[in-house]
Amino acid sequence: MFPTDARVLGPAQADDPAPRRPDRWRPKDWHVTAHVILIVLAAVAIGPMLVMVFNAFKSNAQIGANPLTPPTSLSLHNFTQAWHDGSYATTMRNSILLVGGSVLGTCTIASLAAYALSHLKVPGGGGVIAYLILASTMPVQLFLVPLFSMWTHLGLVDSRLGLLIIYWATEAPFATLLLRSFLIKVPRDFVEAARIDGASELTIVRRVIVPLAWPGVMTVGLIVALTTWNEFFWAMTFIHDPGKRPISISFLSFQDQYSTNWGLTSAAALFVMVPILLLFTIMQRHFVAGLTSGGLK
Amino acid sequence: MNGTHLSRRRLLGLGGALGATIALPNLLTACGGSSSASAGSGKLTFWSDITGTPNQQYFTDKVIGAFHKAHPDISVKTTFYKGSDLQQQIRTALQARTGPDIVRAPSVSQTIPFANAHLLADLTPYSKKWGWDKVVSQWAREAFTIDGKLYALPMRVDTMMVYTNKTLFDSKGWTTPQNRSDLESWAAEAAGHGITPFGSSSVDWAAAGEWLMTLFWNNFSGPDAVYQALTGQIQFTDPTFVDAVTLLKSYFDKGWIAGGPSKYFSVPSAEIGASLGKGTTATIIQGEWYMSNIGQFFGSAAGNDSDWDWFVMPPLSSDVKAGSMPVGFGGSYAVNSASKQQDDAAQFLNWFYSDKSAALQRMADVPATYDIAIDFTPSEIPSNADPRTTRLLTSVNQAISSGNYGYVTWTWWPPKTDTMVFQNLEQVLTGKTTPAEYCQQIADSFTAEFKAGAAPKLMKRA
Amino acid sequence: MTRGAPISPPRRFRSAKAVRTITGWAFLAPLLGLNLVVVFGPSVATAYYSLTDWSGIGPAHWVGLANYTRALKDPAVHQALVHNLIWFVLFLSVPMIVGMLAAHLINRVHRFRTLYRALFFIPYITASVVNAAVWKMLLSPDSGIGHLLGTDFAWLGDTRTSLYAVNVVVDWHWWGFLAVIFFAAMQGVEPQLYEAATLDGANTWRQFWHVTLPGIRPTMIFIVLMTIIWSLKAFDYIFIMTHGGPADSSQVVSTLMYDQAFSQFSAGYAAALGMSMTIVVAIVLVAYRLIQKRGWEE
What is the full DSSP assignment across B247-291? Predict the structure, then answer.
């Protein structure tokens, strides 16, 4: 499972007793280069967003004059107006509910399924994986009419639960496959040991698998949260009551209405961006904590 | 609204629904028919694409609110959508035999398939009961009648106009062009100053190309030729139509429209509007509905002290008389044939059309959005109307009554051909297809749909 | 499994194995059950429609394979496939390379790790509708980056560059995601191997090639597979930014399909296109199974 010494060091050096330091690469130079590259990449990554943040604090006239420069004064006017006109209080609450529901539901479903596929050696598991991949490639745009029809029969249209069920169904396949790739690296020995101790499979998932693969579970949960928060296609089709609309739909119609006012639109966009950014920042600390406490060991 | 666990009823419903889904195609072949809709609960739903908080507020207060005052037992709940999204929602919902009671359906061309699939209720009984033949203009009723059944009423009378930055025109000493050579020499002069003569954009509304084609076919080939083509007497491959397309393309290639095809495809219409306000664009070619949006680009709130005005596109050839305006309908109001409150929904349509003073007041309050196809005289227009609005209403009425009107593509062309008009135009503008090939495609598609009876009915020309 | 003289397992073990299999299927049940209802059912309906002349509203009449034969000959489909291929090549290579590079570099530096990861992730966590809005502004000919640099080229409006312009945005959106995924996988590689490699003089590149890559193999193969498949599905950004235009210059199969279903009244044909996409994926999957059988995952 892990590379042997020969593969890491190359055949010639494997038997060499005295470690040689090459003259060219010194650790310090390399670190500087690495940081430079990383800084450039970071600038490319957040450059556009930075422009948006700048514009959110400017009035439209200022943006017309200087589209890409930092604001000279920090005005909150755009934010208050966008918050009110976009009904962000309502839509943010709806999105938070949807995210919570989808993360809990999808992670549960995916953890169980990924464990079954990676550790329980279920016959036909390969077929299931193939089906999951195939199912996740079906073009969703075509499902619209049959699914809408079915949901209407079940009374699940215009209900957040109905939307949640769709999210569970559509997000779980990728979550399962991803989690499975993390779980494969969890050594069998731990699981065997727990079994010998008489633990039920469910307990194994809760007490052994999830803690050992915690960074993987975290990552999957985060991806599910992101997907749900940013999703707009299903939400647009299945939720009509303005009081139940999620935040992505709110931004779409806001942007449509205020497309000339880039300052307002930027502020509205920030409302969509910042909560999920906060979530990621918070979860990232746990992510690191899980690692440093030797979770994987 | 719902419980949080899957009840047994739901599970059984699930099985049934799964079966229903697989059997769905067969269900769909059965026509919806007209359910005998009794009074129902009096709570109606309506999906609208009116944009802008002030416009939405006006609609909720003055239209829905006024209707509720007139009929206290009926209330309407409105949900607002983006234009292109709304059409997708309506299609999906109607097909699933659900959706709003009052349907804001697309333009005539695109509503025909809905009617043919029996998704809209037959309004003929209501028309007879409430005497709509005395209220709604004849050409409007005929356009929406298929096989003798009335299936919708027009939401708004459409035409094409040229909006201008009046302040800019005055400062440069430009006057309204009266004919093609006037227009072209003016455009060349404007372009020489670095000002884009005609602003236009397909970014926010892909079908914008058909606005331009409507104008050029009607103002160059002439309404008579268009009428003959639409009634199958001549073909769209006739040289006069090809030449109209060639003329349009030449304006694009000179950079007179939007500054060229690439910009037409990428600069959003809001930016074009702002550009008009600033005076870097001289005119915008748009429909009358734009009148309710254009105000935001002018005045102190927009950071300039300019004002706007509009003129009718001059004739582009000698076949066309001055003052000719292409007309049609933008959108329609209909009743969902799956609605359980069809009588109440029809009552709304009745009120919307029959209450003449309320209708005229709406037309005066909000430019263009509520221009419906009813007959009225200029003196009946309320005095608080903006003079530009009044001029629009009188010009359109004048054009129609004097027979000096043309045909907009989104009302009088059959559905697939209508889509082709703007979609295939993109190929012409980018040089991938020639105007002749484009017209051949249009002609072929039109002939096929015409033979299949999918073309709307035109009123005979005087 | 221990080797030795074959003994028939005692009863207890056999039923334990059976219990494990049943439990396995029980664990898979919620996933498969939901999927069956939401995905499989409508997929069957789609497969049915692909064999009809359904316009999207109204009744559907059987036409057999006519839609498929039409798709094979349709030049618009061919052009869309070419665009998909271009898209696929760019989408597979650029984000992977940049993402892996970034993940590896973060893995090896000691300071500001959290900050870098957070910054790289921002494009991915931002909703596609927001990203598209920002980039549309940046790429605008009259007020965007180009304008500031002195050109008024319309990146999204010119038929020669529209596809590549959207692709740049999608690559930009995607590589941060890959960086984080690869970084998480790289955490599973034992640090001692890196220490040993450094002591023995292996430079960054050799460390990466011989320590990091093999250590993240299962994740990497999975991500390659998903990227291949998702390149076929590329829809959101193209739909929002150019709608497949102008003049079909950025039209890919998924946007073509949407156009056929919702603008052209040819939902049956659109269904056939969708099913064809799935068939292509099935072929890719077969290749994946072959790789799997060779044991490359472990």
Answer: HHHHHHHTT-BTTSHHHHHHS-HHHHHHHHHHTSEEEEEEEGGGH
pLDDT of amino acid C90 = 92
Q: Chains with ≥3 Cβ pairs under 8 A against A?
A: B, C
**Chains contacting chain C through 3 or more C-beta pairs under 8 A:** A, B
> Pick from C108, C145, C218: which is nearest to A184 by CB?
C218
pLDDT recorded at residue B462: 60
For position B381, what pLDDT does the model report?
87
Subunits close to B (at least 3 CB pairs below 8 A): A, C
Q: Does A66 touch chain B (CB under 8 A)?
A: no
Q: Which residues of A touch B2 (CB under 8 A)?
A: 155-156, 159, 161-162
- Using CA atoms, how far residue C14 sits from A205, B153, C4, C10, in Å, is 22, 73, 18, 7
Residues B68, B189 share a domain: no
| A100 near B CB under 8 A | no
The verdict on B274 and B173 lying in the same domain is yes
Q: Domain residues for B288?
A: 159-324+404-451
Q: How many domains does chain B have?
A: 2
Of A44, A120, A251, the CB nearest to C129: A251
CATH number of A79-292: 1.10.3720.10
ipTM above 0.85, yes or no: no
Domain residue limits, chain C: 69-293
B90 and B186 share a domain?
A: no
In this structure, is residue B239 part of a structural domain? Answer: yes
Give the span between the Cα atoms of A191 and A174, in whole angstroms.
24
| Average pLDDT estimate for B222-244 | 94
Residue A10 predicted with pLDDT over 60: no
Task: Give the whole-angstrom CA distance, residue C295 versus residue C298.
Answer: 6
What is the pLDDT, as a whole number, of residue B195? 94
Is B446 a residue whose pLDDT tops 70? Answer: yes
Residue ranges of domains in chain A = 22-75, 79-292
- Which chain A residue has its CA at the smallest distance from C56's CA? A145
Residues B319 and B336 in one domain: no
At A17 the pLDDT is: 44
CATH of C69-293, one of 3.40.50.11480, 1.10.3720.10, 1.10.8.60, 1.10.569.10: 1.10.3720.10
Could you give the 3-state DSSP secondary structure of residue B44? strand
In a domain, B362, yes or no: no
Judge if B206 and B315 occupy the same domain. yes
Contacting B residues, span 60-89, partner chain A, CB-CB under 8 Å: 79-82, 85, 88-89
DSSP, residue by residue, A44-90:
HHHHHHHHHHHHHTS-HHHHHH-TTSPPSS---HHHHHHHHHTTHHH
Residue B243 sits in the same domain as residue B230: yes
Is position B369 within any domain? no
- Asked, for residue B458, whether it belongs to a domain, the answer is no
- pLDDT over 70 at A259, yes or no: no
Count of beta carbons in the 10 Å neighbourhood of residue C289: 13
C-alpha distances in angstroms, B49 versus B29, B53, B82, C31?
Answer: 30, 12, 5, 38
Model-level pTM greater than 0.90? no
The stretch C276-288 carries a mean pLDDT of 80
Answer yes or no: is pLDDT of B276 > 60.
Answer: yes
Residue of A87, A149, A237 to mutate for B, most B C-beta atoms under 10 A: A149
**CB-CB under 8 Å, B25 with C157:** no
Per-residue pLDDT reduced to its tens digit, C166-201: 999 999 988 888 887 788 778 777 778 878 888 887
Contacts with A253 from chain B: Cβ below 8 Å: 80-82
Of C129, C254, C274, the CB nearest to A248: C129
Q: Is the pLDDT of residue A145 over 60?
A: yes
**B301 DSSP assignment:** G
Q: Closest to C246 (Cβ–Cβ): which among B271, B419, B430?
A: B430
Calculate how close chain A gets to B96, using CA atoms only, in Å.
Answer: 5
Give the SS3 label for residue B340.
coil
Q: Are residues B122 and B218 in the same domain?
A: no
Domain CATH for B350? 3.40.190.10
Residues B280 and B409 in one domain: yes
Mean pLDDT to the nearest integer, B295-320: 89
A45 with C203: Cβ contact below 8 A: no
| C-beta atoms of B17 and A154 within 8 A | yes
In B, residues 36-65, which contact A (CB 8 Å cutoff)?
47, 51-53
